[in-house]
Amino acid sequence: MAEPNCLTIECLSPAQLQRCPHGWWEDVLACVCYDGEVIEPPVGGIPRPDVNTAVLGPGEERAEVWRLAGPLSSGQLGRVHYRRAEQLLFAALQVHEREFPAAANAAERLRTATVAAYRELFQALEALGFAHPLRFWNYVPDINADNAGAERYWHFNGARRSAFLDARRNIAGNVPAASALGAARDSALTVYCLAGREPPISLENPRQCSAWQYPRQYGPLPPTFARACLDPTLGQTLYISGTASIVGHRSEHPGDTLAQTRETLSNIQALVATANEHLGRARHAAARLCYKIYLRHPHDQLPVERELRLALGENVPMLFLHADICRRELAVEIEAVGL
Ligand code: 3EB
Questions:
Q1: pTM score above 0.85
Q2: Which of 129, 240, 289, 295 has the fewest CB atoms within 10 Å, i.e. the most exposed one?
Q3: Rounded Cα gap, residues 297 and 48, in angstroms
């Protein structure tokens, strides 16, 4: 089982991508583009969802490239673009709420778009023999805005949950890891995922209430995600969900981004420990993860990076994005992958 992990993640600038040879691109599983960057890979069929959030910090990196030793093959089913290897599939789709003009109001348009996105994704995964999503990423335009008297994240949550139920999937326990963040108003709802042929090992955080058990004050229906997942087949990759300054079910340190950052790191460290306990060895370490950090306020980038580098080290990969977080009092959310 302890095969070496052949999966990698690199954040690159458009100039760096220009210099990558054709053979390098053949092993690219997906290229997630941020901040309006449009990358045209020289190899066809590579999924490249564009996420409408600004990149923060001095770097020029605008593309997050997932690579996996081949052979890889790609295709499209409905709106779902995918690329796969023997044991791992990447799938992405983007849906505009304006595609649903018949819906009575904005809340219903978002719910309909979410159900359609998840229905199409689940159908594609099943048709392709990768029925088990390990990790979802969700970018919801204007996630904190109100529609029909409730936050758009709440509508998204209810719709995602009913799409899971419609597809006869678990809504608690063995569920995939996920992140759900804001994107620019009027951009597309963007959902992408990694999926495997076997169910993931879902992990919960001993410091936190399971998200699928949140009490009703955080929305009438709880979100559908696990705090982390281990890939049971490909190299025991660890996918840590979007993690924030939540202890139990409460948001801690409102108004203090650095204290939220430290609390979030404690949550991530607890998840790494849980993963290692499950695997029976020190397979993962917080200082060896690849990080994506979402900040509500761009001016927090420098102090948050300083705080994280103090705890994790100078060379740990970190991509900082400007995004709204699904509780208004939270200013930072961090996700990570252990390769
Ligand atoms: C939290 O812990 C913060 O709805 O998919 C984190 C990760 C959060 C995933 C989701 C939401 C989601 O509740 C928010």
A1: yes
A2: 129
A3: 26
